[in-house]
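Is magnesium ion placement plausible here? Inputs below.
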Amino acid sequence: MAEEAAAGINVNRLRETQVSPLILEEIKYEESDRFLTGIEEFDRVLGGGIVPGSVVLIGGDPGIGKSTLLLQVAERIGRESKSVLYISGEESPSQIKMRAERLCTTAKGIYILSETSVEEILRHIQKTEYSALIVDSIQTTFTSGISSAPGSVSQVREVAAILMNYAKKSCVPVFIVGHVTKDGSIAGPRVLEHIVDTVLYFEGDRGHPYRILRSVKNRFGSTHEIGVFEMKEGGLEEVLNPSSLFLSERTVGSAGSVVVSSLEGSRPILTEIQALVSPSPFGIPKRGVIGVDYNRLLLLVAVLDKRVGMHIQGQDIFVNVVGGLELSEPASDLGIIAALSSSFKEIPVDPYTVVFGEVGLSGEVRGVTSAEIRVKEAAKLGFRRCIIPERNATQLAADSVDIIGVSTVKSALEIMFS
Ligand code: TYD
Ligand code: MG
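Reply from A.M.:
I modeled the complex. Tokens:
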């Protein structure tokens, strides 16, 4: 409560929802209360469908496709003889209709309300019972209880608390759209993260059609789950096999390119890491990363220098993860090391090899979680060899791929470049 009070939420309002204490044993909850939208990538990121009474924040840059995604979700909900209210403070009903035509929406149960006052919204939803509510966006919605402008930190928090209160009381799930803003002037979704149940970020490069829906907080499922979509003429299409997508433009046999098997939530994804190591024309060598942690790169470069004797410290070093994925888990360490070495030596790594393993400061290769799932994904996509931590290798049964266990970076590189 203290945390919420500090965050500026009206604590009294939240208190209204707790009428009297219930015995935990007697509270009824069934997993089947969740409902599935049928958009698999979306359901999985939510932790297995929509939880009644949950508040889900969907954040992302303007124009990334949040409204499109939610209209598609609305269409799925509205199809199942359920009704969903799409409240837009940004677009007029005819603009939403235009998008719906583009998406070939035919569901009967979608209602559109063009409204920005949260009090008016509450008046509407108290009259009619909907199965779900979509508020697009939090920045345009305001409460008359606060004098500051819509989109300000206090407005955004208060409106979110009101919607949260409604969701908990009515058991209607509420989806809130929040634009991520780079400058601090308007309150972005970050200030709401601790209020809502689930926070999903919709990411992607507007130059590319791929979009990743990432869960960063979920009271009802695991975080770090991702869903992959492709933005097409007729809306967002699910990408059910992201590995083949991320590898589709790989130039086989080029130095500095290595395929790693990373785990995003419960799902393995194969992706290509590219490294470029070249002599530095200036005194201070440059480092650049896209998709991997900068400090992790510095650490791995130091390991290569000190433990393997590969002197790349004085070189310019760039690392890129293809397809816009963020590799945050240490299991991609060995892949980064392999890509760096391959570029430095100008020797390609065998294109049918997948690499993963955590690297420690003494140059040892440490075991990772879910090795079997990672190896299976590689086998599925036709890879022939996996270079993995020794500890994992000893626990794995023989598969259609060759499994080579390594315990040090040095031995891993010897195998790769011999
Ligand atoms: P939108 O959902 O309006 O983004 P947001 O709500 O996050 O601001 O989507 C905007 C972009 O998506 C727009 O530039 C056009 C593109 N788009 C398509 O490519 N195909 C489609 O079918 C739709 C509806 C949008
Ligand atoms: Mg929008």
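Short version: The first strand starts at residue 55 and ends at 60.
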